[in-house]
C-alpha cells in the first residue's frame, strides 16, 4: 500500500485536562503521543505547551494523522471533536440524577429547604447503595448543589465506582481559591473526577416554613394551604420559592452548563434535591406543570437518561428493585 494512502486523513482533536481517557496511554512529557485501538493508530503532535491545570479544565489542540478514514477512538469519546469531523457522528452520553439520601431533617419530618443539613446513617447507606447501582456507568463530571447533603451523596456514591477515580470539588469562588487548589500532576488529574457545585441546584427555599415540623405546620396553617405550598407549581410559601421559581434557576443552569457537557459526550452525575431534580425532569420529559407537581422521587435512587441525537431517553433506575417507587412516578 502506498505511503500516501496510509496517511490520507488529518484531523484536529481537542483534548481536555478533565476528560476521562483512562484507557489511553499518554505521555505529556514528550512532544508526541500515539493512541492505538483495534488496528487504528493515531500519531499526535503537540501544538502548544500551555499549562494543563485540572482546576481550569483547559483545552489543548493537537493534530492527529491517522492511517484510516476519520474514526474516533472509544477512549476519546468524552473529548470535544472539531467541526472538521463528520457532523453526522452520533454522540451518546449518560445523565444520572440522584436525589440526596435521607437527611437529619427528613428523619425528623422538618421543612429543610435551603438549610444545610447532613445525611443520617440511613442516608449514608442510601448514597452508598446508589453508588453500587451506577458503578459500571462511566462518569466524567459530577454536579451537585451547594448543600452538604447533596455533596455527601455524590462523594459516598463514587466510593463504590469501578473507575476508582477520586471526586474533587472545583473551587472558583476567588482567584486565590483557583490558584490554591491547582493540581500539578498529570497522572493525578487522569485519576480524578471534577465536581462542580452550584447554588442553582439547591432545594427550593421554603421561607418561613424552614425548620418547622410538617404536621405542626398543617395544624397552624391548615391542610389545604400547606398542600398548596408543597404541591402547586406557582404558589410559594411565605417568603419562599414556588416550584416554578426553583425550576427557572435549575433548568437555566442545566441548559447552560450540564447539557453542554452532555452534547460533547461527557457522562454526568447530578446529585441534588427533590424540587431541583423535579424541575430538570420536567424539562427532560417535557412534563406539564400539573404532571410535575405529581412527580415523586425516592431518596438515594439513581435515575438514568441517555442523551443521543439531542434527545433524552429515560432508562429507569440502574440495577434497582422493581417497585414503582424506585423510579420517578406519577401519583394517581
TrEMBL record:
Swiss-Prot/TrEMBL GO biological process terms: glycolytic process
Active-site residues, record numbering mapped to chain: 100 (tele-phosphohistidine intermediate), 203 (proton donor/acceptor)
Marked site positions, Transition state stabilizer: 273
UniProt keyword annotation of Isomerase present: yes
Family matches, as PROSITE patterns: PG_MUTASE (PS00175)
Source taxon at top rank: Eukaryota
Keyword Isomerase: yes
Single GO MF annotation: phosphoglycerate mutase activity
UniProtKB keywords: Glycolysis, Isomerase
Enzyme class: isomerase
EC number: 5.4.2.11
Binding of substrate, residues: 99-106, 112-113, 149, 203-206, 214, 230-231, 274-275
One Pfam family of this chain: His_Phos_1
Family note: Belongs to the phosphoglycerate mutase family. BPG-dependent PGAM subfamily.
Protein name per its UniProtKB record: phosphoglycerate mutase (2,3-diphosphoglycerate-dependent)
The species this protein was found in: Salix dunnii
